[in-house]
Amino acid sequence: MSLRRGSKVWVQDRDSAWVAAEVTDFIGKQVQLLTEFNKKVLILPDKLFLRDEEADHGGVDDMTKLTYLNEPGVLDNLRRRYALNEIYTYTGSILIAVNPFTKLPHLYNVHMMEQYKGAPFGELSPHVFAVADASYRAMINESQSQSILVSGESGAGKTETTKLIMQYLTYVGGRAASDDRTVEQQVLESNPLLEAFGNARTSRNDNSSRFGKFVEIQFDKSGRISGAAIRTYLLERSRVVQITDPERNYHCFYQLCASGRVADSYKLAHPRNFHYLNQSNVYELEGVSSAEEYMRTRRAMDIVGISHEEQEAIFRTLAAILHLGNIEFAPGKEHDSSVIKDQNSNFHLQMAANLFMCDLNLLLATLSTRSIQTREGNIVKALDCNAAVASRDALAKTVYSRLFDWLVEKINRSVGQDTNSRMQIGVLDIYGFECFKHNSFEQFCINFANEKLQQHFNEHVFKMEQEEYRKEEINWSYIEFIDNQDVLDLIEKKPIGLIALLDEACMFPKSTHETFSNKLFRNCGSHPRLDKAKFCETDFTLSHYAGKVTYQTDTFLDKNRDYIVVEHLNLLSSSKCSFVSGLFPSVAEESTRSSYKFSSVASRFKQQLQALMETLSATEPHYIRCVKPNSLNRPQKFENQSILHQLRCGGVLEAVRISLAGYPTRKTYNEFVDRFGLLAMEIMEGCYDEKSMTEKILKKLKLENFQLGKTKVFLRAGQIGILDSQRAEVLDVAAKRIQGRLKTFIKRREFIANRNSAVSLQAYCRGHLARKTYAAIREAAAAITIQKYVRGWLLRHAYMQFCSSALLMQACIHGFLTRQRFLRRKRHKAATIIQAQWRMRKVRAAYSHRQSNIIAIQCLWRRKLARRELRKLKKEANEAGALRLAKTKLERQLDDLTWRLQLEKRLRVSNEEVKGVEITKLQKTVESLSLELDAAKLATVNECNKNAVLQNQLMLSMKEKSSLERELSSLADLRNENAYLKNTLNIFQAKNLALEQDLAKAKQDTDDTVKKLREVEQTCSQLQKDLRSLEEKLLNIDGENLVLRQKTLISTPKSNLPGFARPFMDFSGAVAFPSIDQRSTFESPTPTKIIQPPSQGQSDSRRAKLTLEKHQENYDILSRCIRENLGFKDGKPVAACVIYKCLLHWHAFESERTAIFDHIIEEINTALKAEDEDSILPYWLSNASALLCLLQRNIRSNGFLSASSKRSAGSTGLNGRIAQGLKSPFKYIGYEDGLSHTEARYPAILFKQQLTACVEKIFGLIRDNLKKEISPLLGLCIQAPKIQRVHGGKSSRSPGTAPQQSPGSQWDSIIKFLDSLMNRLRSNHVPSFFIRKLATQVFSFINISLFNSLLLRRECCTFTNGEYVKSGLAELEKWIVNAKDEFAGTSWHELNYIRQAVGFLVIHQKRKKSLEEIRQDLCPALTVRQIYRISTMYWDDKYGTQSVSNEVVSEMREILNKDSQNLTSNSFLLDDDLSIPFSTEDIYMAIPQIDPSDIEVPPVLAEHPSVQFLLSK
Asked: Any idea which residues carry the catalytic annotation?
């Protein structure tokens, strides 16, 4: 083994057996390790095992797939899988089952059995059903008997595994029986019966089998169960009389004590009152009710076929054993004698005698004495107390042993053996290897049996290895076989074998365990497998295949002796109870000096074991190794040391050793090249054949211990370590090279960054200096510029001063001259103005005097007019009361309006017309009030105008100021009143606005109410329609039931009628027959329907003959319509329309005969059996559905669904005439009431039912055929095909190699299949209703198949496969979109489960998703169990990412544990719905009406004379 620093290894640990570690250093010959617990260890390399650091988190389902097949690798793989509740694992063909100690009902339901039925072994996840199915298929295919060997220690789940095997075998091989108790049911029910009498609680298991059981299930040639047989081995008889705490006796005793009245009748009480039960303080099992188990045992007895009398006798015998154990003895008066100890013992003795139904004194004598027969006569010897107790216990053990054997024999007789059966499957449920602190005779026998089975197991494993090598065509001749024959010789070989020496010691009365041990060591002391115990001279140690076991021999002789006490036999054979006496048949007298008959338990067990091995050798074995994960019986607790011990005891590690002796490492060429191809990249570039690449890689590495098979490369032990070591070196070199390149890249990036920084800094400095130089140059240039501008300014300033002085002088001179001219002009103008003003004053004075005179005259006149106006105003002031009256009138109108508003609120629910009238009145009132308010406003405006005039007059006339002031005060009052009126008007307007709002709200409420009323009316109308439809359906069903009852009355055989009624029957036949010419022409007068009386003439027979011929012609027409493909016209099926028109013309729906309808159905069924089902079935689905719709419409239109009173009115036809003809005769026999309502529509209704069944049958056939066709395609689509390897960007396709199939070709085949399906259906004009239903069910089947395959096959739960399936689902989505909803329906919704599952597979960063996000966002349709299954099986083969976090897995596991405890969990698989998804009404409502009137007669039928009526129409 090549190790290096960083190598991953396994190192032994005292507590955990093996722990993971990593090589950190080499110190001399030792290796320094760092364990997973951060502990440093120094150890030799020989004690280490390599560990696969790339092992999958969920483990592998087959141990042979492990990279390193060794003890710690096997243990770690089981631990990984057990943590995910994956309790089953393969080791080649061996199944390892780890007891989960929790209920997993989803693994064992009927749907799971259906999935494993017929599946190739190893294709699905490991399961006990896979082993059972493999044995069953091998038996059927090879016609060879099989056997399934289930082993394991107590509590490992052997019994439950056996139950599951038998459950599966009865599922695949069960047969329907006429009685209630079938063979398979009896076989299954024998388990609880044998558990009650053969199982007990031990320190390790609450339901431990204390016997070995071999169930042989027999099958007939067709693979159905035909019989069964059960064999038992080595029942632990000593448990009946002796148990240790915390164990229990057999379950049946506790069940009997909890049986209530039955226990009271046998004087039984709590188990603590009985010596055989109170030696342990455990009386009840956790979660188990003894009373319920008692009823279950009684039920099992009923099913097995044990009568109630026998059941009572069985439980009476058990009660007798319990009472027998309470009999105690005390020393008698004589020497070495014994008597009954006390009254309580005497009571139990009497009860035992009563229950055994034997003589009390004889029972006492049998227990306390022994008789020895001599030549002189019988000598009676008294027994002391210890001998009497031993005799009592021997009797109890003998009775229980005989009772158990009787039960097994009864089960075998009840189930029945098929003597003609040549094929059997045997299920062996036997105790596993046992090694306790104290090991006695039982452990010796058990381990002896396991040694025998281990030898058989080794031969089988070696044979499987050879078969594997032979299958792969490699050389295996030099592989060494590991055998344990030396241990078996030590135990069973004569004359010095251990069993032979034990039997010899038992035959001598004075022999003890010391003499036996001494003789054993004297004869076999040199055997390498036998050692003497260190601390006891009488104990010995055997080196078994599973390890060394030390046996204590102090009870070997007593337990091996199986003395048959003749007194016991004579006592119980004389019992008055036939059952008890049947257990102990009378034995012939033998001349012996003792009443004891010696029999060896070990010899008998050896013979049984030899017979078992012969049986197993004649069968093909299958192995199941059950493992108990912990001693506390707790779920999710994995004890490494205990499991490792069980793997050794179960032979699993022995199988690993056998594999290690050959080629333990096996890799497919694809896996090998994927893993080790990087060791020879030049080979990968130039070659495409994976086998040759593998060979070249191995030769390049100079490995010799390998062989190349057909599909795999086989490597000897250690070779894979060398390959991994070299692979690790290559990866190390590559890693170093990558690291070097990465470091170079980082340093170069740092250098470039520093160089860029230096260049930037230099540029900044140069820029700073350049900017400084530029600033100096700029300042110098600026100084020169400033000097230039200063000099220029000074010169300009001097020049400007000179100019301004000259201009000032010129301006002064020009101003003086201009002012002189202005003064002259001003004086002239002033003189002119003075003259003009003087002249104007003279004229204005004359005008003013004249004007004042005129004004005086006007004022006098205006005063006179004002006085006159003042008098008028005083009069009007007295009329102010009129305004108050108007105000009062407005208030009244306002009150009236308020009252009307309240009245409007009360009458809001009145009709729209009243509301409209009220609204109109309110609007008119508002308009009138508005007019009045406008008038008031106008009056107020006029008043204001008048007040203004008065004010002007008062200002002009100061004399009347006081009177005018009084009037002004009255005007102020008027203003106040006017303001009050305005406020009132505003309040009224606000109330009016509120009224308008209330009115609008009332209108809205009314509209809502009207809308709700309309919705209620629509709902009521829809409910009325539904009610009418339901009434019609109910009336139709009632009518059909009534007609069927009446038809039953009519079809009653005449022979069953009273004798006096027969003449009337004959008379009725004579009356009815002459009217045969008036009947429908299609009827066929068969002898069962019409019996001609002898008085009929030849004319009647000729007429009947013609009628028969005409009927035959009609039948020919219908047959040709059905057999010929008449096609379609304008989408209407011609055959259906022609058949319907013929039936209408022949009045077939009005007759009481069904012959023609039966003929149609028979012809259709015959047509359906044609070879070309792809075209025939859609064609007849279209025709049959069309004919059914036409028939349904005819039944509805003709009133066939109306009341019987209406139908009976039209009795003028055949039915009426028959009823009239039969009226009087049937009065005498009470049939008149029944026949008077016999309707002629009975054949039509029956035909409708038959036609409906025919449509459903055709639909089911199409659906089933589609599923059969698409199943192989789906099998190819669930897993992505292997694509070509590409290395270094180059394709490795060789020129001579055929191109591989593209990944999408499988999905293209699905699309082509769907397209062909749609073309077939649409070409046959199948209604879209049926196409939609078929498409929905096909896509539902696709969803179920893909989803179940995804959950059952781990290789499908990968990232790459998820992408592949997702791309295929996208293709299906395109097809659905193109097909449209008319034909596709809800097909896309049917793929909900697989879409969400695949979506979960392809998302990244699953570990960041919480369970709530997964359940609500990603997979809302999936259950927690399904999500858990996908999460634990997922592995990323593309990017190497991990599945969901451990917290999410733990959370899901807790939910599943709660569901398992509540028994509410279902399987994680989906069930296929096989129901018909429509009814007759659905067809009638979905398919549009068909008018057959425009259908022309096909040319095939045109020449037929019976269809001329169609041509005439």
From this structure: 154-155, 159, 205, 208-209, 432, 434
